Every structure is written in C-alpha cells, then in structure tokens.
C-alpha cells in the first residue's frame, strides 16, 4: 500500500529570537584577565583535555576537546592554562546575562550552559517596525525603551546587519530593501532584529567579550544559524519560504540538531543506512544528514517515526517532536529570566575512588565549592543608609550592609557513578544513582564558619547518603560525585523572609514520615555512623530504588517525597489551610 502523503508540520514565524554564543568562552575569560595571551595560541585544560582553545590556536589546527598531547603535537607553543575552577567563568556568564537581560522588555532571557543566551525580542522588534518611516529607511532609529525615546541607536533599515543565510535572502539582502520585500512583514522583522543583534553584540564587546549570534523565528533555527559565521559575527536565517528552511535544516548532520540526542541519532542513522548501529556511540559525528532522514521514502509521517522511536520508556510525543525538528519547527518558549537558579550543582570526576578518607576529602571539597556558589548566587547585600534628616556628607555617610538569602534550597541530592574508561563505551549516565535529603538550616547560617558548615554537612548528610547509595563496604570504584541543592524556596523574587519559619514548617511536614536508622548496618564511615541520628532521606523510608524514581515533587511546597507519602502530605496542606 502506498504511504499517506507526507505533510510537513506548520512552522510559526511570529516570534523573533536571538541566540548569542560567546566565542571560545573559557579562553576569552582567561584572555580578559591576561590580555597578552590574546595574540598567542591558548588552550584551557580540564582533566587532561582541552575544554576549549582560542581562535589563534584553532587556526593552527587545534580543536575543542582535543587531548593535550595531540594539541601540543600540532601546536608546540600552545599556552595551556588550567580551567578546573569554573568560578571565573560563571562570574562572566552572570555578568553578560545580566547585561542582555537589562535590554529585554519581555524578560524572556534564557541561559543555556555558561555561554549561550536566548532572547525573545518579538515585542521590541514589533514596536520598532511601527516606528519605521518608509521615506527615509536608511536613517532609521531603533528605540530601546518605550518610556524613554532617547534610548536607542541609529541604523540603516535598507540593509541587513551581518550575514544573511537563505537562498531567497542572499541577493535581496545584499542589494538592500526594495520591491515587494518592503511589504514582507517577516523580512522587515528579521532585518530590524539583525540591527538589534549587532547593537547588543557591540555592548557585549564593550565589556570585553566577543560573540556569535543567530537570528531567526525560533530557538532551534536561531541557534543553528548562529553557528554559520563564527567567531565575532552574526547570521540571520531569512526563511521566507518553507523550502529555504527545509534545505537549511537538511544540510545538518542529524546529531547536530539540538534536541536529537545520540540515542535517536543512532536509531535513525541505522534505519536510513539499513544497518544496525551501536547505541552506545556518543560522538557528535553522524554519517546521515537531517535531510536524509526527513526525505527518506519510508519516513512519511510522525506515525512511522513513532514506530522507530516509541516503545516502553520512551518520552511521550518524541516522534512528533523529532518530526518537527527535522522541519525546522520548534515552538518552545524562551524561558523568562529568574533572579535565582532553580538548582545549583557541583560535580567532579575521578579515576575510581575506593577509600573512605578519599571520599570524605572530595565531598568536603565539593561542599565547600557548592557553598561558595550558593553564597555567590543566592545571597544579596542589603545596603541600608542612615535615616533621612541626619546631616552627612557623601564621604562620611556610613552604609550598613547586611546579607540576606534571596532563596533557600530545601533539598540536597547526592549522585554517584562508578568509574568507566572512555574505551569501555559506557554511556555517560551509566549506573548513575541519586539520593536526596532535606538541606539542614545551619547551611544558611551567617554566624558559623563555612568550614564548620562543610564539616557538618559532610558528616551528617552526605556521607550517610553516600553509604545508602553504595552500601557494600568495599569496591566502590567511584568515577563521579555530584552534590546538588534544589527545591528553591523564595526564588520568586520575594526572597526568604524567615528562614527559621521555613525550616520549622519543613520539619513539621517531614515528621509524619521521618524514620531513624536503628539497624546501623556496617558502615565504613565510623564518624558518620556515630552521628547517625540524622533523619533518613525520604527515599530510605520508601525503600525506593537507587535511581530515586519513585519520588514525587509536592506541587504546593516543592518538597521531594516518596510517592506513597504524597496523599498524607497533601492532607497536611489541607489541614494547614483549614487552620486545623
Ligand atoms: P565557540 O563557541 O565554538 O567559539 O567555542 P566555545 O569554547 O565557546 O565552545 P562552546 O560554546 O561549545 O562551549 C562553551 C564553553 O564550555 C567552552 O569554552 C568550554 C566548555 N565546554 C563545552 N563543551 C565541553 C565539554 O564537552 N567538556 C568540557 N570540559 N567543557 C566543555
Ligand atoms: Mg561558545
């Protein structure tokens, strides 16, 4: 029987999205600190590989994620700087995110990793389209504030800024705005957005950093087109016709399409090539393009894809999503900016830790670094000036600075994974397992030292969690430890007004199903064992699998609970509302 006719999904082009990607990010951060390095080939090392390298090094054949030995062979005078401590990179990332956010009207500013930022500028562009004067387009003015018309910049609205990608765009964009294009709303919106992108890139350059930028109508297309001209450049995807967008998408290797991970890639690659693929290959390389998958005669609809990708345990709607991505369709929103992250996690990898003192030492290091991050991201200084009416000069004015938590994570989660060597071919998440516990209130103390907090946290919470995750007394072979704090209270902008009350309430909530470990199974952690009066984690009460997947988040207080306890927990909330 003939397959039903293929019907492409409909792409919505009513938004304008910018995607910024900082050039050789870690390397730029280091160069910013040591400008003399800009002229030299520079690599940033993490765990024996080059996490990234600057473009001087790239022109000498060095690449991101190359081994150090290979990089040195290609470029013997490569300057290598240690990049294990992410703090300076995080700080720059925050600074540039805040800068771009300050220009946004909608607040839709989303960070992806440390060096990529999406901006939904639909509203700014629409406003400025209305301001266009068709009689003097080459002297247009882009207004950056609805309230203050003086804030803005001049631009030439007869031409695009930067590179333009798309067969119907290249010629007209180069020649300038004319003919029917002046009436093409999408063309005009993308053209204005290209000037806004340039303006913002220059603002970032004033801070000392260069970026690439992609401009399009959704996140997927903006990210992909931004890669076309790197570094220090920008590209607009002028997809006025479906065919332009399809041929743009088709040219990408399957694995390069954001949202199509390695598992899906191997299934589709195997199907197109008609051979079995090893599902454990995680390389970004793929011998099949998105176009080959999209145009394959047997892949006529999401229903066919569903047969390939569906099955027990697969994500709901996955086939439809992949079908959309292959056609350049992505309706996901740019998430609104948040003042605080939803979670903070720190992890490190090891070549197989087996001794208790090593585990304790590494956990202390990770916890110290986690606490520093929490202080950096979650604490705000309140500057209180003296009461009005007191005579004072600027220099003599004393300012009282007090600190307050903007948000408090309520849960700490420990994740471990055994060591595997890259040649084992094990997927990244292999045997990764997690356990959670309530985060104790002393973590938020301003009166005890960070060292004391770390010591208590490791002994009372993390080591017991570790032992739950790795119950056998020997042979842990730990390859990864991740400590994460999550379940933010007060992250809605109001901050945490009363930490004590928050924890009293948390204790009340927990009392109902808190158990204490009286069985005291043999533990290699003598110190931790002695202190084993810590409430056990919710998981241990539920007897959950080590994956913690029978846990559920309470939608009212965002506490992680064993699923069996959720009903009782909801009753607790009802009682609270009734005042009973
Ligand atoms: P670009 O954007 O091609 O000019 O170069 P980068 O260095 O900005 O690369 P990008 O945007 O893929 O990643 C941003 C930073 O994240 C980069 O400076 C290093 C780090 N990074 C990215 N991928 C990996 C990775 O797989 N492992 C490690 N350790 N670091 C990575
Ligand atoms: Mg980058």
SSE blueprint:
Blueprint: E1 17-22, H1 25-33, E2 42-46, E3 49-53, H2 55-59, H3 68-74, E4 79-82, H4 87-103, E5 109-112, E6 116-120, H5 122-131, E7 140-143, E8 152-155, E9 163-165, H6 170-175, H7 185-206, E10 211-216, H8 219-226, E11 233-237, H9 242-250, H10 262-273, H11 290-294, H12 302-309, H13 318-326, E12 344-353, H14 356-378, E13 379-384, E14 400-405, E15 408-418, E16 433-438, H15 450-469, E17 478-489, H16 499-511, H17 526-530, H18 538-542, E18 551-553, E19 560-562, H19 566-578
The protein binds 2'-deoxyguanosine-5'-triphosphate (DGT) and magnesium ion (MG).
2'-deoxyguanosine-5'-triphosphate binds at residues 21-26, 46, 51-52, 64-65, 114-115, 230-231.
Structure, described:
The C terminus is likely disordered. The chain contains 19 helices and 19 strands. It folds into three domains: 223 residues, Alpha-Beta Plaits (2-Layer Sandwich); 73 residues, no CATH class; 132 residues, DNA polymerase, Y-family, little finger domain (Dna Ligase, domain 1), CATH 3.30.1490.100. The relative contact order is 0.08. The chain is α+β, with helices and mostly antiparallel strands and 580 residues long. Helix content is 36%, strand content 19%. A six-stranded mixed β-sheet has the order 5-6-1-10-11-9. The chain has a four-stranded antiparallel β-sheet with strand order 12-17-15-16. The structure holds 2'-deoxyguanosine-5'-triphosphate (DGT) and magnesium ion. The site of 2'-deoxyguanosine-5'-triphosphate (DGT) has 15 residues, from strand 1, helix 1 and strand 3. 2'-deoxyguanosine-5'-triphosphate binds next to strand 1, helix 1 and strand 3.
């Amino acid at each position: 029987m003939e397959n039903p006719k293929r019907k492409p999904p409909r792409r919505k082009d009513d938004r304008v999205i910018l995607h910024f990607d900082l050039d050789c990010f870690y390397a730029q951060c280091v160069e910013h600190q040591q400008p003399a390095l800009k002229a030299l080939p520079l690599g940033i090392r993490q765990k024996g590989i080059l996490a990234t390298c600057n473009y001087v090094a790239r022109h000498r054949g060095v690449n991101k994620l190359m081994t150090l030995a290979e990089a040195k062979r290609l470029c013997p005078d490569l300057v290598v700087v240690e990049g294990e401590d992410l703090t300076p990179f995080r700080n720059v990332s925050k600074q540039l995110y805040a800068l771009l956010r300050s220009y946004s009207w909608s607040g839709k500013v989303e960070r992806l990793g440390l060096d990529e930022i999406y901006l939904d500028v639909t509203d700014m562009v629409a406003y400025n389209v209305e301001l266009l004067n068709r009689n003097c387009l080459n002297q247009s003015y882009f207004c950056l504030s609805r309230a203050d018309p003086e804030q803005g910049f001049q631009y030439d609205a007869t031409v695009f800024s930067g590179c333009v990608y798309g067969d119907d765009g290249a010629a007209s964009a180069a020649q300038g705005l004319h003919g029917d294009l002046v009436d093409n709303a999408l063309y005009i919106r993308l053209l204005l957005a290209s000037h806004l992108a340039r303006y913002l890139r220059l603002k970032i350059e004033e801070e000392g950093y260069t970026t690439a930028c992609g401009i399009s109508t959704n996140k997927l297309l903006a990210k992909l087109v931004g890669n076309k001209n790197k570094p220090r450049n920008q590209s607009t995807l002028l997809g006025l016709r479906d065919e332009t967008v399809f041929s743009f998408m088709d040219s990408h290797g399957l694995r390069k399409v954001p949202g199509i991970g390695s598992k899906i890639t191997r299934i589709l690659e195997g199907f197109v090539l008609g051979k079995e693929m090893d599902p454990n290959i995680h390389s970004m390389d793929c011998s099949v393009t998105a176009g080959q998958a999209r145009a394959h005669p047997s892949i006529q609809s999401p229903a066919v894809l569903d047969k390939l990708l569906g099955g027990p345990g697969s994500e709901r709607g996955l086939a439809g999503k992949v079908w959309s991505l292959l056609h350049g369709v992505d309706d996901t929103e740019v998430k609104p900016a948040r003042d605080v992250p939803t979670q903070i996690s720190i992890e490190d990898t090891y070549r197989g830790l087996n001794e208790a003192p090593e585990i304790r030492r590494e956990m202390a290091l990770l916890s110290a670094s986690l606490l520093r991050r929490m202080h950096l991201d979650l604490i705000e200084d309140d500057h209180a000036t003296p009461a009005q009416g007191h005579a004072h000069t600027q220099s003599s004015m004393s300012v009282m600075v007090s600190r307050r938590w903007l948000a408090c994570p309520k849960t700490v989660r420990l994740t471990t994974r055994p060591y595997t060597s890259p040649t084992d071919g094990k997927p990244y998440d292999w045997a990764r397992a997690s356990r959670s516990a309530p985060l104790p209130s002393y973590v938020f103390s301003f009166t005890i030292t960070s060292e004391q907090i770390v010591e208590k946290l490791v002994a009372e919470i993390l080591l017991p969690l570790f032992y739950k995750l790795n119950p056998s007394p020997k042979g842990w072979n730990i390859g990864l430890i991740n400590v994460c704090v999550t379940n933010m209270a007060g992250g809605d902008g109001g901050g945490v007004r009363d930490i004590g009350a928050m924890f009293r309430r948390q204790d009340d909530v927990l009392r109902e199903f808190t158990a204490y470990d009286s069985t005291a199974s043999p533990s290699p952690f003598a110190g931790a064992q002695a202190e084993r009066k810590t409430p056990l984690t919710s998981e241990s009460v539920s007897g959950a699998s080590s994956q913690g997947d029978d846990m559920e988040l309470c939608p009212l207080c965002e506490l992680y609970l064993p699923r069996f306890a959720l009903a009782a927990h909801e009753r607790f909330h009802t009682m609270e509302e009734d005042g009973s």
